[in-house]
Amino acid sequence: MRARRYPSDLTDQEWQILGPMLPPPACRTPRGGRPELHDRRDVVNAIRYVVSTGIQWRALPCDFPPWSTVYKSFAKWSHAGAWEEIQDRLRTMIRTKMGRCPNPVTVIIDSQSVKGSDTVGALTRGYDAGKCINGRKRHVITDTRGLPVAVLVTPANIQDRDAAKLLFERLHEYQPQVVLSWGDSAYGGELEKWAKDECGLTVVISRRPPGAKGFVLIPRRWVVERTNAWIMKSRRNCRDYERRPDHSEAHITLALLAIMLRRLARGAITPERYPSAAVLAAGA
């Protein structure tokens, strides 16, 4: 294993949390396969380096495993849904340490448009007339503490309410306990009735205070907007470079995983001052 030298490298505490969550090597599965030649921690560190710095895969420093090995591992784990599964497990760990219900019941939804590089094909990009951006749009759902629940990447010309239907259907299948979603005015109108009828989900619109001017912290919405800011701290996410939207979703998830891992490893999580009703009921 190489020595830790970059800010994006995993600490020992972070690796103790993340390592066991990765899919098992092929050689340890019933189907079998060749043993892995490179240390998994080095491969994950290389993936995190790309996400953090925004470099090309082929530009990986020579002290990492070969770029082709790193990219294949990234693509394989992305296709297997490993990053989303790890995201769910870390979110459950953090919520439990905070004294909250392990699975969120209330979520917040928002979107973010980003410019697409020339590597983004015409079939997966579009023009967002409202933001004057040619590229892709990220649709993010978080819990009430800003922890990621679901991510979807679409062409930028896709309306928020249309993408929300796909996300709400996914939530209804994998997170059926979610019954309430906050959002801005783009998620109002027909979507509210559709979500209630098809997914049993109540959509509540959080609006700007009447007469407000300039920047204002809007209740509930600021939480997911902060998560969007966390995503942009990783330079790979400042612009969309991926040919495949699912790889864009993986880069977004990895950026948020780094924050969640750091909080868990440092123990920077304290129980809430006022426990949730579910925790109080369990304690009783």
Rg result: 20 Å
Largest sheet: 6 strands, mixed
Unreliable residue stretches: 274-284
What is the N-to-C order of secondary-structure elements (H for helix, E for strand)?
Answer: HHHHEEEEHEHEHHH
Distance between the termini: 49 Å
**Which fold name fills CATH's third level, the topology of the largest domain?**
Nucleotidyltransferase, domain 5
Structural class based on helices, strands and sheet pairing:
alpha/beta
CATH architecture annotation name of the largest domain: 2-Layer Sandwich
For the secondary structure, the number of strands is 6
CATH C-level of the largest domain: Alpha Beta
Global geometry: globular
Give the strand content: 5-15%
How many structurally independent domains? 2
Number of helices: 9
Structure description:
It is a single chain. With 284 residues, the chain is of the alpha/beta class. β3 (133-143) and β4 (148-155) form a beta hairpin. α1 (12-18) crosses α8 (245-266) and α2 crosses α3 (67-79). The model is unreliable at 274-284 (pLDDT under 50). The chain is globular and about 60 Å long. It has nine helices and six strands; from the N terminus they run ααααββββαβαβααα.
List keywords for this structure.
284 residues; Nucleotidyltransferase, domain 5; 9 helices; 14% strand; globular; disordered C terminus
